[in-house]
UniProtKB/TrEMBL annotation:
Domain NERD stretches: 11-126
Any Pfam family the entry gives: AAA_19
Top-rank taxon, per record: Bacteria
GO molecular function: helicase activity
Protein name: NERD domain-containing protein/DEAD/DEAH box helicase
Length: 579
């Protein structure tokens, strides 16, 4: 059985699915078959796509699949069948040839050894008998209804023979198939696994290793961004937004652009600074916490007294007044703007005042500049007129929109439990199975401490590293369940906000708000007394979704009934989606 990437094709005609799955069953084990390969460097299109690409020991082949009827009149090709009918001036053979050209150029530019490899294309019409002839029709590379029931391995060998002979006659030389090493190399060049400091670590379980690689959906989104200067990527927690954002930053910085990565979380900004840009040219990628950057801008303009005169406990301070002063400061000084702006967790700063600052920071502004916003619509706290104004401002830049639905961070059990407790649903599609998430009830603080200590000792005894565990609270340390305690299970508790760098063997303790945008293999949630209360749901959602594989939630016994109501509500939401 050949390697299929992805395992299951999505959102495609039945004809494509049929051909793709048969190729997987019938081709050799060491061959690789890619479905719906995006081609941003297509020679004649802004964005091209190959239906199916076969990487094999006999060569590289691009297959164009057409289901249903196929007709051509006056140079216009018409297609119909198991999808909506449509017309093109480009024949299926021209489509396959164009896709192959983009694939060949991409591989050869990455590695000159691919110049020795055989490249060819074919057209598959599984449900149609197509006997027409013409200058742009190659019957030799067509597989239609007449022979579709024959082994597809035979068809691939016929493509090898045809293109070997054609290229021998044209170039006077023979071409070969891919070596095992080139098969792996070609796969990574055409459909790489995106890896960043946020998603790759020293994982301890087989379950977690399935969360290392992004799904085809996230890879597609990343590649579409390469073809669009302005994009808005939307998705719930766990769908890979931060990973894609950082990968896009690195790609742009590597291409020579001066990139600013902005986020609302200072821990996340520090994490990116320490890992994502270390191998890039100096100054190519700058990762900043929004408020720290604003403060530096205001200080540079000598307006810190204006900032100090504001009430930072006011509900309007961070949303409106802080960015207003930052915008004024930018207008009063000269500074070097950034070529590209990437904003992660953008829902936290979606107000017109923040957009004023971003517009001034970016070369050519938001209307004509290059920017990418990543946001979770479920966490957007700005509604009504503010949301309408922001939507209008962003629309002026005519951005492309992308929506993510597949969970590439959490196991299914984590996603479900976090959805139940928070009342806000995480993506479950694509999430692998993992260990059960647990609710642990306690009757007193002493009972909670004893249970927490036992859990930590059990996890560490089971080879879970302390560094892979985070205890998250809805409250600061001095007001939390662990107030006054700086050690558990013989391990020092480390708070990155107040204590700087951690040491080996310490266990992280911080607030859910401060940990937003980060993740750990194991999350233990405490101070969850308000479970079921609407005003706390978004904080619980943001915190619990940080767990990749293991999630433990400590609840007082008095919250038992509230949890049951949350579980019932989740069941009703799930039932509603299924009916």
């Amino acid at each position: 059985m050949a390697i299929l990437i992805p395992d299951v094709p999505k959102d495609c005609p039945n004809s494509e699915r049929h051909v793709y799955e048969r190729l997987g069953r019938e081709l050799p084990d060491d061959w690789i078959v890619l479905h719906s390969l995006g081609l941003p460097t297509h020679g004649s299109k802004i964005w091209g796509e190959a239906d199916i690409v076969v990487l094999s020991t006999i060569g590289v082949f691009s297959l164009e699949v057409k289901g249903g009827t196929v007709d051509c009149a006056d140079g216009v090709w018409s297609f119909g069948g198991d999808f909506n009918s449509y017309s093109k001036r480009e024949s299926p053979w021209s489509q396959a040839m164009g896709a192959l050209g983009a694939i060949r150029d991409r591989l050869r530019s990455a590695n000159s050894a691919f110049r020795q490899v055989l490249f060819g294309y074919g057209v598959v019409m599984p449900y149609t008998t197509f006997t027409a002839s013409g200058a742009e029709i190659l019957q030799d590379v067509l597989l239609d209804r007449r022979h579709f029931r024959e082994p597809l391995g035979s068809y691939m060998r016929s493509l090898e023979r045809y293109w070997s002979a054609e290229l021998q006659n044209k170039h006077g030389r023979a071409y070969r198939g891919l070596t095992p090493a080139e098969l792996r190399d070609a796969r990574q060049i055409l459909r790489p696994d995106l890896e960043t400091a946020l998603s790759i670590g020293s994982y301890l379980t087989g379950v977690e290793s399935r969360l290392v690689h992004l799904t085809n959906e996230q890879i597609r989104a990343s590649r579409r961004m390469a073809a669009n200067p302005r994009t808005v990527v939307r998705g719930p927690a766990g769908t890979g937004k931060s990973v894609i954002a950082i990968d896009r930053c690195r790609q742009l910085a590597s291409d020579g652009h001066k990139v600013l990565y902005l986020c609302f979380n200072q821990l996340l900004a520090a994490h990116i600074r320490s890992g994502a840009g270390t191998d890039l040219p100096a100054g190519a990628l700058e990762a900043r916490h929004v408020h720290a950057l604003y403060r530096d801008i205001i200080a540079g303009a000598g307006l810190l007294d204006r900032l100090a005169s504001q009430d930072d406990s006011s509900q309007d301070f961070f949303a409106f007044r802080f960015p207003e002063i930052a915008a004024e400061a930018l207008c009063e000084q000269t500074f070097d703007s950034w070529d590209v702006l990437v904003v992660d967790e953008a829902q936290d700063i979606l107000t017109p005042q923040h957009l004023d600052v971003l517009d001034l920071l970016l070369k050519d502004g938001l209307r004509r500049g290059r920017w990418h916003f990543f946001l979770d619509p479920q966490q957007n706290i700005y509604k009504g007129d503010v949301e309408a104004q922001v939507d209008g401002r962003l629309a002026e830049g005519a951005p492309a929109f992308d929506d993510l639905f597949e969970n590439c961070r959490n196991t299914r059990q984590v996603a479900v439990q976090a959805s139940i407790v928070s009342g806000v649903d995480l993506a479950v599609t694509g999430a692998p199975d993992g260990p059960d998430s647990e609710i642990r009830y306690y009757s007193s603080h002493e009972d909670a401490f004893a249970s927490l200590e036992k859990l930590l000792r059990d996890l560490i005894d089971a080879d879970v590293r302390p560094e892979d565990i985070a205890i998250l609270s809805t409250r600061k340390h001095q007001n939390s369940l662990l107030a006054g305690r700086h050690e558990l299970a013989g391990r020092r508790l480390f708070d990155p906000i107040s204590m700087g760098q951690s040491k080996s063997g310490e266990i992280l303790f911080t607030t859910m708000h401060a940990f937003k945008g980060l993740e750990r293999q194991t999350i233990i949630a405490v101070d969850m007394e308000e479970t079921g209360q609407d005003t706390w749901s978004m904080l619980h959602y943001a915190g619990l979704s940080r767990a990749r594989c293991l999630l433990y939630i400590f609840l007082p016994s008095s919250a038992n009934r509230a949890y049951e109501r949350q579980a019932e509500a989740f069941g009703m939401r799930l039932k509603g989606r299924l009916t």
